[in-house]
Each structure stands twice: as C-alpha cells, then as structure tokens.
Amino acid sequence: MYPRSAPTLAHMPKVNSFRGLLTDQLNHLKKLLDQVDSKSPKSLVHDLRVLSRRLRASLAVAESADPSLKLKSLRKRIEALTEALGPVRSLDVAVSDLKKRMNGADPSLVATLAHVSEKLRRHRRRLKRSLPKDLAPEKLEKTLKRADPRHASYDSKRIQETLNQEFSHAALQVQEDFLLFRKKGKIKRLHALRIELKKWRYLYEMKEKLIPPSENADRLPLAKDLQDRLGLIHDREALGEALNRPGVWRFVKKHGNTAVFKTFLKALKSEMKREMEDFRRTGEKTIMELTHFAESGGPASVQA
Fold it and tell me: What's the distance, CA 235 to chain centroid?
C-alpha cells in the first residue's frame, strides 16, 4: 500500500530561521506545482498535499506572531490546494487498497473488484485532468504578489513564544480529541484527532528545524506510529466511501456479482470497526507519551 506517513525532515534542507523555513516551503511548493499535469503520479499528489498542510501550519504561526501580516488570501489559496488534491489522493489510496485485497481473493470477488477498480481508475483520471487548472502555479504567484511572507521581518522571541503556544495547544487538542473518541467511538472524532496529530507533527518538525538540538527527538517515531494506525483506519473508510458511490453500485449490478460485493463491503466495515475499537483501547498510552511534555518551551533560541 502507498505509504501514509508524511515525508521526514530529511526531505527538506536544514534551516536556521523562520523566514528561511517559509521560503524553503513556498519555493518547494512552486517547484512541485510546476510538475503537475493530467497524469501526475501518486507520489506528487501525496507530497503536494503534505506540503500544503505544513505551509498552513507555518502560516498560522506567522500570523499569530505578527497580526499585521496580511496572509488571509495566501492561507485560502493553500487551503484550496489541499482541498483540490483531497479527492485524487483518496482515490489513489482506495485503488491501491483494492489492488492489495484482490491478491489471493476468491475468483468471483476478484472478477467483481477488477471491474470496480477500473471504474475508480476512470473517475480518478477525470479528476486528474482538472488538476492543472485547479493547482495552476500562476494563481499562487498572483496571491504572493499581494502578500509574500518570504519578505517579512519576524521577531525571533515572538516566533518562539508563538511556536511553543501553538505546539502546546495542538498537543492538548490531540489529547482532548482522543478522549472524545474513546468516549463516543465516532469516526468524526477520529478525523479530528488525525488532523490535530498532523498539526502537532508539523509544529514539532518546525521546532526541530529552528531550535536544534531537541531533548524531545525521540517523539517523532511515536507520532509516525499513531499516524500509520490512524491512516489504516482512514484507508478503510476512503475505500468504503469510494465503493458505496451510486455509480459504483450501478456498475456492479451491470458487470459484477452484487451478492459477493455486498459481502465484501460488510467485511470491510467490520474490519474498520475492529481497528477503531483496538485504537480506542490501546491508543491512550502512546498519545500521552507523545504529548505529556508539550508544556515545555524547550531551548530559547529561534532565529527570525
């Protein structure tokens, strides 16, 4: 299956200033956007989506540290990139998961899923054809002309304070979202947890870049483990949503075995519920290990 976790810090050069970090992120985003076409590979879609989320975390720190910065249009542009990439990424995950499940499966199920997989691939190709327009680099350039955070001046003390505050808040939100999920067991609470965990990780990586060395350097593997577990549950849901679309059902009725398909969907739903229940029972220890130090501000030197 295509890897769920975000690229590691090794994918980005080491920086020693917050402005340098923003500059690297925006320059890298422009480079990736220039590569987008109607046949963009899964890796490019994945990397773009992760980078857009990292940038959103960085821009939130910039705005909180200096409210005079007019970054609303840029934030909305980056959010639009994340949203445009979402459906393509979900189908990439669904198609990869479906292909894996077909290996060694019953021939009657394989025959049905082969038809379904082709249906999903066609839908994904249609979505990809719109990506060059939706992600057009000139839209980003136009937005940056109005407000470019690469040219702003940042107060190092204020950046450090803001980064620590955002980091602590994200950690507490991760804990709260898990406790709400454990209490109610709802998938929407798990979604909220996934989002906050990603935000926590991106802020953690910012701290690692801007305040080296860190006494908390062992926390990233814990975050990766949680993201992988939550990602597997999300994969099941993404596949289920893709397969339950009305167009897919009509396709199955015409080309496949409806009874076999229903049994497969039921098993998929049960599998997701088991994984959710397992995470509900065992996730707290890892989450508390990950976030218990969040109130610590860490070393006190950030370059603006």
Answer: 12
